[in-house]
Amino acid sequence: MSPTASTTADEIIELLRTSATPFITRHATAGAQQLSHETLWSEMAELGWQALLLPEALGGSSLSLRAAATLTRMFGQALLPATYVANAIIPAALLTAVHAQHGNDERLRELALDLSTARRCLTLAWQENIGELEPPPPRTRLRQGRLSGRKLFVPTMAGAGVMLVTATIHDETSGDAQPVLVAVDAAEPSVTTKVHVGEGLSLASVDFSNTPIRYGSPLLEGPAVLDAVCAALDTGRIALAAQLEGVASAALERTLQYVNQRIQFGRPIGSFQTIQHRCVDLHIATALAQATWQHAAQVHQAASTVPAIARATSAAKARCGDTATLVGRNAIQMHGALGFTEEAGVGRYLRAALLGASWLGTSQMHRRRFMAHGDRDAGDLA
Amino acid sequence: MTDTLSPGSLDLLTDDEFRQRLRDWLQEHYPPTLRQNYRRPFLRLRGEPAREWQRLLLQHGWRAPAWPREFGGMGLSFRKQLIYHQEFERASVARVLDAGEVQLGPTLMRWGNREQQQQYLPRILAYEDFWCQGYSEPNAGSDLASLRTQAILEDTHFVINGQKIWTTHANDATHMFALVRTGKFPKRQQGISFILIDLRTPGVRIRPITALSGEDEFCEVFFDDVRVPRDNLVGELDQGWTVAKSLLGYERVFIGSPGLTGKALALTRRLVRERGLENDQGVMDRLAVLETDLHDYRLLYAQMCDRICEGRQPGAEVSALKIYASELRQRVTEFNVDIGAEFGGLLGAADIGTTTTDLHWQLMMTRQLSIYAGANEIQRDIIAKAVLGMPAGKDGR
Questions:
Q1: How far apart are CA B112 and CA A90, in angstroms?
Q2: Cα-flanking dihedrals φ and ψ of residue A195, to 5°?
Q3: Which of A114, A154, A196, B242 is the least buried, fewest Cβ under 10 Å from its Cβ?
Q4: A37-46 and A9-27 helices, crossing angle to 10°
């Protein structure tokens, strides 16, 4: 779907929302069986969603982050997995950033095609420490075309896939070290993974042991690698924030439905003031959350400075993470005993919130980054 | 020059031109000694300083931004009213609580007769009359409809007996607009009338109430056979509830303005620096929560204002602004007390490093925010029913 000159950004988003609704309705499960990620993934590809953020030069539809976030919000509401953020948005943003450095690169086009056709899955492996917000110079090493090291919290992939990995290469002569970005086939025998399951998304520890890289050489070298990864992560964080707000809003909506029909003491429990006030506070919290990711998407779109994007992104990720867990916990409480059963399914909102709130930086870490990129809104007093 | 522009023509400027012109004017004309500062971040103007300032605004065409031009106001669009508020905040202008301008004026424009409009509106603008609002009573706070101050019609006059309480700045005021009981009906909201009272009428006694902040902004007002001309009735007899409750302007939006919270947080940052707490991670993490709360709230506020600019009328949803803004400002003042250490527990002004502040004052000044202009509990009740569609409780409330 390519936008015509007369189609405004809002119209595009409306079209996207409309085309997504049948997909969501078909796949939304609240406590039902786990659906195959492969099925989901190929359907999304048919709808052109993996290609949403790719530039046209890489065969994408070059839509805005706001458009992608509209989708992820809907996914959040329907408790669909966060795999779209992990395996589409972040890789697409990374390929886009690399493309901006390299331009005409056959390898990038191949990877982009893998992504947009769902021929292969992509994932980014950058993290090496627990509780890490931004990529440090990697300990993972590239030596003579082979990779060795450990990456943490790598989103897993359905089926065959390619990992985009950050590593360090040491110049034999000068001894200089610099970061590189390489592509690795996940199916390589020298790659071992330990998978940790989360609600809708699994994150793995990945060990590389002299693993050969694809293409024989890095996709990108130098400080630009870490910048590209940062940009991709922040893009992912904004989309994830939208997904978290969707989780929060749906959890609240479901809770309102429940309390308004659950009768005790001869009246709906939603008629009791304490329940009402609690729901109002959750409503205000989700309104705040929604304002933050919308703002972050706008800042991102306006091609703002890296600090401005980091600040807006951290505000959104922190707020939406906190809000989703807050609403998730309260949803359980307001469902009474039913709330803490597996079968009722209310707990899935909290699980989805926990994953989104902790992955890609906790709220506390993001608030610290927000402060570090301070632009003081309020003036000083006399 | 602004001085020669007639009220109303300022609305024709572009937003940026308007902002700049106002900014320049405030820079030139607002007395620096009256600026909100670290000592008094929420300073308000009262009495003579308020009168002087309002008259200066009138003289230069900056008075009554929300009044239509036909009544002598600036006739500003919502968007420009927003800019107006922002620039006043930016210039640290101490607010005047002008109930005459903000509440009575629009009420008379909508419900008053021509004689009342002609008699009172110009005097409100010129600050010749200063009005206070007489609604709450000792037994009628959130449950205002249960008010009992009585007005009995005796031929040409109403005779008023009763008491009002929490009347802001009654001790400065010349007049009061009040809700009084004029009839008895099954529904308590009926039988209430909206009436204008000259506070210099015999039988009126005003007693200021000292608040925890040390300020005497609130008063009791006693009425002992106070005779008020029948013509002072605004709207129909027994229909005052409708008059008072009808939506009047955007004040419900502006009450949620993040500006004053920004002042409180400016004090916070100053105190953190003065006490050398920048390396205290615990303090900085708590500060980060408040900073992001304000940052995010500004976004929500801007979003709601944008919707109004686009033509959407503010509904029950705006109660959320009052709730959040008031409670956030309270939390900031509480944090200021925390990081003020020993000074947080003491009264009066103190020098913390090079900064003079009054931590007790700023804490106590915010206690009323969650109570006045509709207690936050009531605001939550409103949102639950009107926005979330939750069911009424026993007795249908």
A1: 62
A2: -95, 135
A3: A196
A4: 150
CA-nearest of A226, A223, A231 to A313 is A231
pTM value? 0.94
Report the pLDDT averaged over residues B75-79.
Answer: 93
Backbone angles phi, psi at B292, to 5 degrees: -70, -35
Confidence of residue B395 (pLDDT cuts 50, 70, 90): low
Spell out which residues of chain B touch residue A295, defining contact as CB-CB under 8 Å. 299
B269 reaches A (C-beta below 8 A): yes
CA dihedral B315, B319, B322, B325 (to 10 degrees): -100
**Interface check A308 vs B, CB under 8 A:** no
pLDDT digits (tens, 9 = 90+) for B85-137: 999 999 999 999 999 999 999 999 999 999 999 999 999 999 999 999 999 99
Asked whether the beta carbons of residue B320 and residue A284 sit closer than 8 angstroms, the reply is yes
- A255 is written with which tokens? 């809770």
Question: In this structure, are strands B192-198 and B157-168 parallel, antiparallel, or unpaired?
Answer: unpaired
A79 residue type, one letter: L
Nearest CA in chain A to B265: A378
Give me A275's structure tokens: 């329940």
Judged by a CB distance cut-off of 8 A, whether residue A377 touches chain B is yes
Q: What is the pLDDT of residues A331-355, one digit of tens each?
A: 999 999 999 999 999 999 999 999 9
Report, as ranges of residue numbers, the positions in chain A whose pLDDT lies below 70.
Answer: 1-7, 29-36, 375-380, 382
Size of the A and B interface in Cβ pairs below 8 Å? 122
Asked if the Cβ–Cβ distance from A379 to B266 is below 8 Å, we say yes
Cβ-contact B341, B18 below 8 angstroms: no
The Cα of A322 is separated from the nearest Cα of chain B by a number of Å equal to: 11
Q: What local confidence, expressed as pLDDT, does residue A159 receive?
A: 75
CA distance A23 to A74: 10
Question: In chain A, which residue's Cα lies nearest the Cα of B383?
Answer: A280
Q: How many helices (H) and strands (E) does chain A have?
A: 11, 10
Put simply, the answer to whether B303 touches A294 (Cβ < 8 Å) is yes
**What pLDDT, on the 0 to 100 scale, is given for residue B354?**
96
**Record: contact B383-A280, CB cut-off 8 A:** yes
Q: What is the ipTM of this complex?
A: 0.92
Least Cα distance to B215 among B353, B85, B97, B352 occurs for B97
Q: What is the 3-state secondary structure (H, E, C) of A77-127?
A: HCCCCCHHHHHHHHHHHHHHHHHHHHCCCHHHHHHHHHHHHCCCEEEEECC
* Chain B residues near residue A382 by CB distance under 8 angstroms: 32, 35-38, 92
Q: Which residues of B are catalytic?
A: 251
